[in-house]
Amino acid sequence: MLRAAMAEPISLVLSGGGCKTFWGMGAYEVLEDLLPPIERWSAVSAGVAMALARCTGLFPETMQVFLDEVDRNESNIYPRRVFSRRDRAFPHDGIYRGTIAAILERGGFERVRESVPVHMLISHIEPGYPLVRTSAVAVRNHMIARRRRDLHGPGHLAPGLGYRALSSHDAQSPAELIDWIVASSTIPPFTRIQREGGRTFLDGGLVDNTPIRALPKHARAEGRKIVCLISHKKPTPRIPMRTPEGAEILYLAAPEPLPIRIWDYTSPDKVVEIFERGKRDAEALRPVLAAFTSASR
To answer: Is residue 20 a part of any domain in this protein?
Structure first.
C-alpha cells in the first residue's frame, strides 16, 4: 500500500448521478492505495449513499443488496399503480430506501457514528415560494450550467431556492439519516417529496453536483487538499485548482459517457459494467493522483 505518500489527510468529494455513481466506486477501488487518510467525505444525491457505504466498510454488501433488488425489479414504471394508494408507480424510492436501510440495520448506523463524517448537500424551496415555478427555474438554471460545463452548478440560485449541508454524525437515528440521504436525491416522481418546517426538499445537485461547498470552511482552507470523483463525463481542469479559501482541488472524471440512465433500476448487469469501467478508467488516473498527493511531501 502506498497510503503513506502524504501524511496530511484529505477530503474526498463524490458527485451525484444515480446509477452512474458506481463508476466512482469502481475508480475508488483502484485509487484507494494512493490516497492519504480521508478526513471527511462530501457528497450529494446517490453519492451520499456511496460515501457512507465506503466509509463504514460496507460497500460490497451495499452493492450486492442493490443488485439483488434491481434484479427483482421488472420495470422503471408500473402504469397500473398510478392510482394505487398502496404501491408506487415508480419503484425507485422503495428500492433506494430499502437498500440503505438493509445496511444500516446490519450495524451500519453504529459504524456511521464511529467513522469519519460525510457531509451531504440538500437543496430546498423556502416557505412561501411556489413549488412548481421555483423547481422549474432551478432545473432550467441547472441545465444552463451543465451546457456551460460549469464545475459547481449555477452561479446564481433561483429565487426561493436554498441549501444546507448536513453531517452524517448529526443524524439521531437510522430513519433520520435515510430521510436526509433521500432528501438529497429528491427528483419527483422517482422519489417522494419530503417537507420539513415549511421547506420542500429537492436534489442537492440542482445547487452543486460536486459539492465542495458542503465541506466545513476549514477543510477548504489554505494548505488543505480535496479530491473530487465525478461519475459522468465532464471537462475538468488538467491541473489542480484552488477553492476561494485556498485549498487545492484535483478533479477526476469519467472520460466517456456512461451507458446507463441515472434512474434505471432494471439493469444489474449495467450497474456492474459501470463499476468495472470505473476500475479500468482509474488506471489511467493513478499517475495524476499520485502526483497530487505527493506534491507537498
So the answer is: yes
CA dihedral sign of residues 125, 131, 134, 139: positive
**pLDDT 10s digits, 240-290:** 999 999 999 999 999 999 999 999 999 999 999 999 999 999 999 999 999
> Is there a catalytic annotation at residue 45?
yes
Q: Which residue has the cell 427483482?
A: 72
- Identify the pLDDT of residue 295: 64
CATH number at residue 22: 3.40.1090
Chain CA centroid to CA 89, Å: 25
Domain that holds residue 201: 10-295
What average pLDDT does the structure give for the chain?
A: 92
In a domain, 5, yes or no: no
Tens of pLDDT, residues 46-76: 999 999 999 999 999 999 999 999 999 999 9
Is 252 within the bounds of a domain? yes
Domain count, the chain: 1
Which run of H or of E encompasses 160?
none
Q: Quickly count: other Cβ atoms within 10 Å of residue 245's Cβ.
A: 14
Note the pLDDT of residue 249: 97
Catalytic pick among 45, 115, 135, 267: 45
List Cα–Cα distances, 132 to 136, 179, 204, 275, in angstroms.
Answer: 6, 22, 17, 35
Residue scoring higher pLDDT (152 or 66): 66
Active-site position among 135, 185, 203, 281: 203
Please state, in angstroms and rounded to a whole number, the distance separating the CA atoms of residues 43 and 118: 7
Asked if residue 4 belongs to a domain, the reply is: no
d(CA 163, CA 281) in angstroms, rounded, equals 33
